Amino acid sequence: MMDELRELYQEVILDHGKNPRNLRHPPDANREARGENPMCGDKFTVYVKLNGDGVIEDCAFEGRGCAISTASASMMTEVVKGKTEQEAHALFETFHDLCTKDEHEHCDHGPVDEEAMEKLMVLSGVRQFPVRVKCATLAWHAMQAAIDGQDKASSE
Amino acid sequence: MDQITPTLDTPPAYDVDRVRADFPILTRTVHARKGKPGKPLVYLDTGASAQKPRAVIDAMKTFMEEDYANIHRGVHVLSQRATDAFENVRTKVARFLNAPSREGIVFTRNATESINLVAASYGQRLGPGDEIVLSVMEHHANIVPWQLLQMQRGVDIKVVPVDADGVLDLDAYRRLLGPKVKLVALTHCSNVLGTVTPVKEIARLAHEHGIPVLFDGSQAVVHGPVDVADIDADFYVFTAHKLYGPTGLGVLWGKPEILKTMPPYQGGGDMIQSVSFKGTTFKEPPMRFEPGTPPIVEAIGLGAAIDYVEGLGRAAIAAHEHDLLTYATQKLAAIEGLRIIGTAPGKAGILSFVIDGIHPHDIGTVVDQYGVALRVGQHCAEPLMEHFGVGSTARASFGLYNTRAEVDVLAESVQAVKEFFGS
Ligand SMILES: Cc1ncc(COP(=O)(O)O)c(C=O)c1O
Fold it and tell me: Is the CB of B110 under 6 A from ligand 1?
C-alpha cells in the first residue's frame, strides 16, 4: 500500500510541495493567468516574463494547492525558464501525455528538453491516480494560458 | 431533529453488526493488489451519498420483475398496480415528514431540482427590489438557483453569516427580515459543518413578516426525525440517495395552498388537464409539477428506504450517529495540528477537518489507501470555505452503518497521513 503512495509522492515531490521554488510575483512579469480546480478549490496564478524574442525569462507562481499541484507548479517554473514559447508548449504537451497516457500512446510534440522531462518523470505516478491528474497539470494549463494571452485556464 | 446526547461510556444499544449485514457493499474490500489482500471498506462519505440496504435493492428489483408499468395512464392491471405503488410512496413520504397532506409532496429528480422548481416557479412573482435570504453555509444547490433568479428577475440575495463554531447568526437573520424579503431559503443541516439550524424559530420569525420559508433538508432527514407541520415549513426539500434510497429522485414538500398558486415549472404529459392549441389547462399540485414519466422504480426504492430507516428507528439512528460523532471528535481532536471545522452544539454526524501544512486532497488520497472513503474539497460550498479561510476540507460523514472501529481506522489513517508528510 505504501509502495503506491511512495510512487505518487516521491521525495522530490514532497520537497517541492513543502518548499516550492519561485513562489512569488515577479514585478516585471508581462503575462499571467489563473488556474482553478473547482473540485478541490485549488487556485494558482502563474506569472511569465516573456521577452521580445519569445523566450521565457522568468516564470513564477502564487496560490495554494495540494502537494502534487504545488510540486508540479514549482518544478514547472524551473524547467520552462529559458525556453521559447514553442519549447514550453512542447514540454507541456509531452508532460500531459506522461500524466495521462501509457507510454505507447505518447505523441510527438516536437523537440523537447530531455533533461527537463527526466526531472518531470517523478510526477508520472499520478497516472495510477486518475483524479489527481488535474492536480499535476493545473499550473501547466495556467502557464500555457498566460503565454497564449488568456487570463484564465481551467484544468479540463 | 431532536438533539440526543448519550454519554461516551454508554453507547446506545443498537446492533450495528446486524445493520451492516443489510448492506451488501460493506463486505467488499478496496485496493486489492497482486498477492496482497484489499482493505475493508470504511465508508465515511454517506453525506455525499448513502449506501443501499438490500431491502431497497430488492424492492426495486422485485418491482421491475413483477409489477412494472407506466403509471397514471393505463387501464391494464400492471399500470394500476404500479400507480398504486407509486402513489403509496407519496403517502409514505408525507407521513415521513409529518406533512399534513399528500397533495403537497412533489417528486423531482433530486434536491437540486426541488429548489430549482421553487426558484423558477415561485420566483415568477418576484422582481427588482425583492430580496431572498440565504445563509453562508448553503450548498451550491441552494445558492445558484437563486442567483439565476437574480440574473433573470433582478432580485437581491442577502446572506446570514455563521459564527466561529458554525452556528447560524440568528440576530443577523432577524435584522435581515423585512418587507422586501419575499422568501427565506436555508439549510436545515449543513453538509460541511453538521450544524443543525433552529428551523422552527427561523420559520416563526419569517412568518411574523409573512415571508414563506424553504428548508434544504438533504442532510437533516438523514440524521433525525423531521416534522414539517411542527416546523411550519412552507417548502421542504430532500434527495432520496442520501436517505439510503436510489439516485434520480428528490422530494419537494410545499404547502398545497402555496403550490396551487404557482405556475408549472416544466410542461409535458401527465401535468395537464386538457391540451388544445387554443389553450392548455393544468392539473392541480402535485401533478402540475410532475410532467412526463417520473422515476417510478426509484420511488419504490425510496419507499423501501423509508421503511428501512423507520424500522431501525430514527431516534435510535440519530443516537448511534451521535455516539460516533462524539467518539470521532475526541479521537481526531487529539491529533496535533488537526482542526475541526464546525463545532456547533447539537450538530449532526458530519466532521470536517483540516491539518496544518497538509492539503485535504493529499489527506484523501492517503487515507483511501487504508480503505477510508472521505470527501475532500469544497463540498459544493465555496462561500463557506472562504468564510472559514480554508480552500477546502476533509470530511467524514457518518451513516447508520458506521462503527467505532471504523472511527479508529480513520484516526489511524489520519495519523499515518501526518507521518507520511512529516508534519
Ligand atoms: C445540504 C445539501 N443540499 C443539497 C444537496 C444536493 O443534493 P442533490 O445533488 O441530490 O440534488 C446536497 C448534496 O450534495 C446537500 O448536502
Answer: yes
